[in-house]
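Two entries, shown back to back:
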Amino acid sequence: MSSSHFKKRLLAQVGLVGKALSNLYWLQFIDFIAQGERGLGELAEVSGLTVANTPQQLQQPRRAALVTSRMEGLKVFSTLSGYEVIGLLVKRHPVLRVKATPTSWVRGKPRSRS
């Protein structure tokens, strides 16, 4: 595989992960699944979606290889694809804390960091 082909595939994967972290439902799923394996009913309840719509919403985190699913009879259970996903969630929090802190804004303008 050429290095440019590898780089394109790598960047495409980064894009999929970014997209999976850009939606409230997908983030809720990933955060809840990080606490342990979850069934569709549990994911629907925590997100406020219907059980019928939940599998469709899980597609993007699956495409990004953040979540895997298994069937047990007629039931579907989802789990994180690896411990690396938890690291990804932990690393996003400092960025969110800086960006979302109300005290960092005064009359609509960011405070200087001097």
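entry 2 starts here
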Amino acid sequence: MKIRLKRLKIPTVPLDAIDRKILEILQREARIPDVDLAERVNLSPSSCLRRVREPERTGGIQRYVALLDPLALGLTVSGSSRWPWSGRWKPRWEPLSAPFARDPR
């Protein structure tokens, strides 16, 4: 029995230098206003918006996300681990464990 696999045809958007610059800026500043983005790539706002909407439509831009700072939000992380402290491993692990030895409370 022979299994035949279909090749997926994924639509791609051809990118020029301006498109790449737009995507580069959006990766760093996803909430940049359209007018500011257009100004930074030397396009009219409507032309720039068209260039942003196309990769959104085809899935090149999947979503916009927020990067959170856990410390600024008062979130803490706790954990535990077991490390081999005896024998030849002790000199290697001691410097690594120093930051974790302090109790932050």
